[in-house]
Amino acid sequence: IPAGVTQEKPAMTIDILPTIAKLIDAKLPEKPIDGKDIWPLIVNDPKAVSPHEAYYFYYNRNELQGLRSGKWKLYFPHKYRSLQGRAGRNDGMPVNYTQVPMGLELYDLENDISETTNVADKYPAVVDSLQRMAGEFRKRLGDSLTGVEGSEVREPGRVPEEAK
What we know:
By secondary structure, the chain is of the alpha+beta class. It has three helices and six strands, in the order H-H-E-E-E-E-E-E-H. A hairpin with a 2-residue loop joins strand 2 and strand 3. The longest helix has 18 residues, at 124-141.
């Protein structure tokens, strides 16, 4: 792994298992997994590209809240937790959050890594394209926010009780 270089292409933790499995020539589980080999990105291969067309952000109970494709990040309408600038506690005890609504929002992460400026109105073709991608993905994994039941919905992997 080269020292002192920066990799601009996205990767996520779902890609760690298949990457390590390939490096050690291990067989992947038979059940489908969403990650892919990102070794070319890690070693900064100049020809490396992300093995994913997009990363899809699911939270809560199968809510597709957003996606990232290339430099674009699109959020779908949902609510998220926020302290809205209020201070938390310093004793380890939780505080009450406010549920904040979010609309359809597009961010250009090359020029706005902090996601401060929603550019959805400036790039309607990008929004449409990303929404079509999300629609196809919803057909597979579903989305409780839109009521779509996916054809490939599966339970998360669990360690059997007898193995604990």
